[in-house]
């Protein structure tokens, strides 16, 4: 088995373990392999191993990869901070946008023709530079998404803060999701959990994991 297949299998086993411990069906959990900075050859290899959902965080890179790999039938998840002026272009190839975090971006994503799945990203830190809406502005942004044509609200997305235990942070997101479901009963999905904290995320109800290096190995440059 290749090293990539090896890592993919061990993460899949870790996901099944965590789901079992949480009393959850692993079939209800989507694993998005975050392939930022990785070459298209690696994404082809992942597709051959059965991966269907991939994540990218920079528009230009994502757009080029989605165009080059159009034959693979992959679902592209946009997980990075998104400039409003790039919003329409991202809509063109993304199945889901996980980083909806402000009203101006919602306006830029508006469409009367097509619909895209989206997640509202919540900021769990005090640093606005980390992306995500502040928890006290969550309902206002959710209402804006709900009244905007072309956006299908699936749920919430969050990144656990650095240097803190992840599980209480994910429990907090789960509680915020209950607030959101009062406005949008269908918006039950939770995009949370990365290479180092996906087990905690599953224990707190994650439905969409965004896992990079634990599967791909180290990224070639930065990021
Ligand atoms: C890079 C990235 C991930 C994956 O991170 P790993 O630690 O490599 O698993 C997940 N979510 C977002 C938003 C990212 O930018």
From TrEMBL:
InterPro entries attached to this UniProt entry: Ala_racemase_N, PLP-binding_barrel, PyrdxlP_homeostasis
Domain Alanine racemase N-terminal, chain residue ranges per copy: 42-220
N6-(pyridoxal phosphate)lysine: modified positions: 36
UniProt entry keywords in alphabetical sequence: Pyridoxal phosphate
Protein purpose: Pyridoxal 5'-phosphate (PLP)-binding protein, which is involved in PLP homeostasis.
Assigned protein family: Belongs to the pyridoxal phosphate-binding protein YggS/PROSC family.
Entries under HAMAP family matching the protein: PLP_homeostasis
Name by which UniProt lists this protein: Pyridoxal phosphate homeostasis protein
Lineage: Bacteria, Bacillati, Actinomycetota, Actinomycetes, Micrococcales
């Amino acid at each position: 088995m290749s090293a990539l297949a090896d890592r993919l299998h061990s993460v899949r086993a870790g996901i099944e373990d965590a789901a079992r411990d949480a009393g959850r069906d692993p079939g209800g959990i989507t694993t998005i392999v975050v392939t930022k900075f990785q070459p298209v050859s690696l994404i082809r290899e992942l597709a051959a191993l059965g991966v269907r959902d991939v994540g990218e965080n920079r528009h230009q890179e994502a757009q080029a990869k989605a165009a080059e790999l159009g034959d693979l039938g992959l679902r592209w998840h946009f997980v990075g901070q998104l400039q409003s002026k790039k919003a329409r272009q991202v809509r063109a190839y993304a199945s889901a946008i996980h980083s909806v975090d402000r009203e101006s971006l919602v306006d830029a994503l508006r469409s009367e023709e097509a619909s895209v799945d989206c997640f509202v990203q919540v900021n769990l830190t005090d640093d606005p530079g980390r992306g995500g809406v502040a928890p006290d502005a969550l309902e206002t942004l959710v209402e804006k998404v709900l009244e905007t044509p072309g956006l299908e609200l699936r749920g919430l997305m969050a990144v656990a803060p650095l240097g803190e235990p992840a599980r209480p942070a994910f429990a907090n997101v789960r509680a915020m999701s209950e607030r959101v479901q009062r406005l949008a009963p269908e918006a039950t999905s939770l995009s949370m959990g990365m290479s180092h904290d996906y087990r905690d995320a599953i224990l707190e109800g994650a439905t969409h994991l965004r896992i990079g290096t634990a599967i791909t190995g180290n990224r070639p440059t930065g990021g």
